[in-house]
Write the structure tokens for this entry.
Amino acid sequence: MHNTDLEKMMDTTDEWIRERTGIQRRHYAAEGETTVDLAEKAARRAIEAAGLAPGDIDLIVFATATPDLVFPNPGTLLQARLGCRGVPAFSVEAACSGFIYALSIAEKFVRTGDARRALVVGAETLTRITDFTDRTTAILFADGAGAVVLTASEEPGIISTHLHADGGYKDLLYCTGGVSSGYEAGSDGKAVIRMAGRETFKVAVTMLGNSVDEVLAKNNLSRSAIDWLVPHQANIRIIQAVAKKLDLPMERVIVTVQDHGNTSAASVPLALDTGVRDGRIRKGDTLLLEAFGGGFTWGSALVRF
Ligand code: COA
């Protein structure tokens, strides 16, 4: 879906969307295509890229805010399709920070020896909870999936992860309904995203800036140690602010927001995949992954690729 397609659906312009967000196009799942459908494609490609077969996977951690069903969790739905039955599989909901949370959890399983080859997936069909009558949010959100496989090794690949949340910010970014609290009158059981964009923007820049400081301080690193920033793709202006904080030129930042929009938990693994497959990210590079989302939740991961 290009910005020009959205121009036909709501009172917006390609120019406004590009200038304020950096987004040029985004992808929507086909009718009937679910989060797990997208996740399966990403998972199979990740497993193949790792030189493994689905039967080698011994843990699935699935980050999403848009699961196919309330239960079984999407990790188990994916597990059945991949055919690695019996291994633990569960989902993590931390909105746009979901992938960083899932990565951090899976890393701890691998570090303790409870898993040796963990599949970590971030996948969303955010268009199912998008209010297409609200131009302030509808232009941002999209669908997608990304995945990685973590394998046990003597040399650390994930050097550190840092997770945070502050539930006091709930009203700035939330979904209007849910199973337990019910749905708005007249909404036909549809829950939609509501966001105070300007306020969310400010908190995101502050918290992600703090997160960068934390990663560097905890690892006793200078800013020049980071080869690549792989950020959550919500808005090019947020990404630029974090890059500036790191003193990193934009050439060292993997930016996909122009092609994907905001795909929440899928955003960081989609960007990582782009940087790896086009040859920019190479073995031995030091990556800083970061994300920020509803809750608010936020977090980062320092990775030696
Ligand atoms: N098309 C055209 N005009 C639009 C528009 C659209 N799609 N959406 C909003 N506008 C208008 C507003 O009505 C407002 O008009 P006004 O000045 O006459 O009142 C004007 O554009 C500016 O709106 P504002 O909300 O101040 O814009 P902004 O520069 O803050 O950009 C966001 C809006 C949503 C792009 C930006 O705030 C943002 O990216 N926020 C954070 C989003 C985010 O990261 N969320 C997810 C975290 S995971």
